[in-house]
Amino acid sequence: MPETLDNLLAETRDRLKAAGIESAALDARHLVSGLLELALAALVTRGREPVSDEDAARIRAAVERRAAHEPVYRILGEREFSGLKLKLSKETLEPRPDTETMVECLIPHARRIALKKGSCRIVDLGTGTGAICLALLDAVLDARGLGTDISEDALATACENARRNGLAGRFETLRSNWLEAVNGRFDIIVSNPPYIRSNVIPDLEPEVKFHDPAAALDGGEDGLNAYRAIASDAGRHLEPDGVIGLEIGFDQKQAVTALFEAHGFHMLYAAKDLGGNDRVLVFEHDPAAPRV
Ligand code: GLN
């Protein structure tokens, strides 16, 4: 007798609970629905339907990976971000819902600039899956984007994600360490750089420290290395009425603001993430500072 969907879901949840996975019930639903390509609601409405032995074996293999703390969306190989389906790969950070805050903060700027100039040029530094840039391009039709990354694997994934989401015509990639290989000026400079202090990395959850790439997490001794590199070059690459959007760690608002102020920028606003932590800073040129 083949398993029913209901039985397999219960088995999955129990296995994950026994492995100490806190979000066992939720993860079970996402894993099973993702692997069977079913909507979450179908898990309820089709619960009595049989699951083939082959699908049951696929699910059980995936459950063992989750029981060993591999994140659900790494196992599925893709996740949704701002309405786009994004493929993940070895050297890309898994896009977080908190980072959608950045997209929401920048859409009004991209629209304002596109309306005024007929286009809006965006550069996303350390683009990873392409998440932030592609979500902005999806929301603002007159915008064009350049995604940079130090990792070739990430650049290939970002390109693939642009193709999958019908955005390849407005998205390019460039291998670059922050702004080093970038030419020209942009209306929006955006980045979710690595910002975790090196000595905190060993304390992160196994899902993060063993499965997100270290290069996307580790911000150096004080967590600020990437911001320093970006701040020192951003003035040469930002259009006069452009903005810089940065994701930050929960306790980095003051330090990152001070760094950018020292390079002639002014903080327009700060936004909090879904958990109420400071997460996004938006800067513009300080009108009083000399231009580079
Ligand atoms: N937000 C991620 C985390 O908390 C870190 C991402 C980053 O360093 N940019 O795991």
Automatic annotation (TrEMBL):
Gene3D superfamilies: DNA helicase RuvA subunit, C-terminal domain, Vaccinia Virus protein VP39. Residues 8-77 form the Release factor glutamine methyltransferase N-terminal domain. Pfam families: MTS, PrmC_N. SUPFAM superfamilies: S-adenosyl-L-methionine-dependent methyltransferases. GO terms for molecular function: methyltransferase activity. InterPro entries: DNA_methylase_N6_adenine_CS, HemK-like, N5-glutamine_MTase, PrmC_N, RF_methyltr_PrmC, SAM-dependent_MTases_sf, Small_mtfrase_dom. This is Release factor glutamine methyltransferase. The lineage of its organism: Bacteria, Pseudomonadati, Pseudomonadota, Alphaproteobacteria, Hyphomicrobiales.
